[in-house]
Amino acid sequence: MIPVLVVDDEPMVCAHLRTILDSAEDIEVVGEARDGAEAVESVLGLRPRVVLMDLRMPGVDGIVAIERIGALAESPAVVALTTFDDDTHVVRALSAGAIGFLVKTTPAEDLINLVRVAADGHTVMSPEITHRLLGASAGDRSRAESARRRVAVLSDREHDLLGCLGQGMSNADIAGRLFLSEATVKSYVSRMLTKLDCANRTQAGLLAHEAGVVAPPTRE
Q: Is the dihedral of CA 208, 151, 184, 94 positive or negative?
């Protein structure tokens, strides 16, 4: 079972998400929290694998909560819950350590599948918001130049890996694309995140897009 904590100050939103997720045989909503402070306490007490975190809440907001959860010895995967007009908060949430973000109106089947993806430690991003964020970044020349300077420290192999992360590929997918073992990919990714000062794969993936780094083509 994948234990999930839902954090939102709107009871109706929590009830909606619980109904959807509890319909899956392998997912269980183990708790709900109404603000960031309660979310941190619930993570400590309930030990969820995935936290769905609203960003704008009274008191301790979701971004502060993500930072506090990320500082725990054993932190779960945190996915930011957002709306279509919340780009600024999404960027801050990723910087705070969220592994991705979903809009609250994500269809039920997609939500269930993406929670499974998050539980496996992979990047989760709503395509609509990702495209908008990347479009805004593409129009910011200084940001693109900064991204290219950051990735200049990478080796050719690490550039290939970064491009794969930009496509949201898992370690298994990357291993198949680059003809490496999953253990080697995991080691490369860990070192690369340190070099780039990225908190997680999601930040690295967005950096890849900003710097124009693409995955190598599939070899027949």
A: negative
